[in-house]
């Protein structure tokens, strides 16, 4: 077996390192990261190239369908996922948010069952954000003032997706995968401590587009467990089904992770983004204003039903989606209406058969808990088999969505996109806009809709053709308005410069986060 010093040859850390970082980036931990990179980065890059090839097929009019080569997996009722792990049996309310210290403390002190600490969509991937999140994980309960009147929420970490890289950490001249960097440091430093406390190293796995990407995660998990000498199957991963291609491979994704599977989650905003992104060249997939694309429109309803049916058939959790509302403190009537919307959404999830749900703000936890406590008296409802559900290709691709494209909808999309990009330029990954917590997922929906509307020259309800000149005119108007009302030194005009290239129906970055990461100023 190679020595630590020999493994460390070829490793370079380009980010600033302070004393607390040195504890995280110990020689042994860095050697583990190098091992992960050398073992798996080749496969990761091959899988990303498969995405490019698949996109080219979709651009030519090909449509996804259930895979004939894995039909035997889908039709075999005998196999099941892993049994729920300690701390993950009851997940009725999960809170999510970035990994800054204040959020960690607030989340762990909330009346929720789990906390998903997010190194992905709600965190801007600056070096400081990513490495300080790891410092906070390692310090954990020892240095936080946490409640003692109830069991603390189970911690689940969401690493970055396979497409993102950590450019401040290179191995043999290549940047390490953001996924492997985030997973590796958290797992290496915390796995045994988590097990000693009665839970384990648990993860949310984002942005996957095929079961082969789940297979890669499973290989990573096995290597990690073998490396630190803990039993295989200790790790658990909940997969966010937030791409239209993954929706056709849900059985296969659970199968690949089956010894480590903790179920699937409805990543609703990323899912809508994926539908627009994957079919952006296809005029049959043009959606109306974002506000019209609710969870009850045909393609979203089919996705939810199939996810619940698939998970419960395999006896793993089927988690619901995000309530992104923020309490409106200065307007009781408006706040009451918003909270009624949250209640209705959580009621829909509980009655559909979900085993739990997400909230972005601690104040929403009580509403979600009330709903699930009333309608799910058991720790989960995996016994709700949804055998009544029959979902096929046409159901998942049914774009019959009532609604219009309006100038108001265009301006709202621009405001969300500019608000997110301006926050990102300041190193903030989620921003409150109109009493909703907007992150990368909602910004992606906004810019992808604008791109597609311009590309296809759609008319608005007011009779105006959406073209490049019109989009840029509205972009300037919104940027000027936001800049005039924003704090001194805001970056809305700079955000507009970056955003302008993504809303004109021409260039289209695979992800805003990777597009932004290529801008030096975004990484400072």
TrEMBL record:
<dbReference type="InterPro" id="IPR048355">
    <property type="entry name" value="MS_C"/>
</dbReference>
<comment type="similarity">
    <text>Belongs to the malate synthase family.</text>
</comment>
<dbReference type="Pfam" id="PF20659">
    <property type="entry name" value="MS_C"/>
</dbReference>
<dbReference type="GO" id="GO:0006099">
    <property type="term" value="P:tricarboxylic acid cycle"/>
</dbReference>
<feature type="domain" description="Malate synthase TIM barrel">
    <location>
        <begin position="154"/>
        <end position="398"/>
    </location>
</feature>
<keyword id="KW-0816">Tricarboxylic acid cycle</keyword>
<feature type="active site" description="Proton donor">
    <location>
        <position position="439"/>
    </location>
</feature>
<dbReference type="InterPro" id="IPR048356">
    <property type="entry name" value="MS_N"/>
</dbReference>
<comment type="pathway">
    <text>Carbohydrate metabolism; glyoxylate cycle; (S)-malate from isocitrate: step 2/2.</text>
</comment>
<dbReference type="InterPro" id="IPR011076">
    <property type="entry name" value="Malate_synth_sf"/>
</dbReference>
<dbReference type="GO" id="GO:0005782">
    <property type="term" value="C:peroxisomal matrix"/>
</dbReference>
<keyword id="KW-0576">Peroxisome</keyword>
<dbReference type="InterPro" id="IPR001465">
    <property type="entry name" value="Malate_synthase_TIM"/>
</dbReference>
<protein>
    <recommendedName>
        <fullName>Malate synthase</fullName>
        <ecNumber>2.3.3.9</ecNumber>
    </recommendedName>
</protein>
<dbReference type="GO" id="GO:0004474">
    <property type="term" value="F:malate synthase activity"/>
</dbReference>
<keyword id="KW-0808">Transferase</keyword>
<dbReference type="InterPro" id="IPR046363">
    <property type="entry name" value="MS_N_TIM-barrel_dom"/>
</dbReference>
<dbReference type="GO" id="GO:0006097">
    <property type="term" value="P:glyoxylate cycle"/>
</dbReference>
<feature type="domain" description="Malate synthase N-terminal">
    <location>
        <begin position="10"/>
        <end position="72"/>
    </location>
</feature>
<dbReference type="Pfam" id="PF01274">
    <property type="entry name" value="MS_TIM-barrel"/>
</dbReference>
<feature type="active site" description="Proton acceptor">
    <location>
        <position position="158"/>
    </location>
</feature>
<dbReference type="InterPro" id="IPR019830">
    <property type="entry name" value="Malate_synthase_CS"/>
</dbReference>
<dbReference type="InterPro" id="IPR044856">
    <property type="entry name" value="Malate_synth_C_sf"/>
</dbReference>
<dbReference type="InterPro" id="IPR006252">
    <property type="entry name" value="Malate_synthA"/>
</dbReference>
<dbReference type="Pfam" id="PF20656">
    <property type="entry name" value="MS_N"/>
</dbReference>
<keyword id="KW-0329">Glyoxylate bypass</keyword>
<feature type="domain" description="Malate synthase C-terminal">
    <location>
        <begin position="404"/>
        <end position="515"/>
    </location>
</feature>
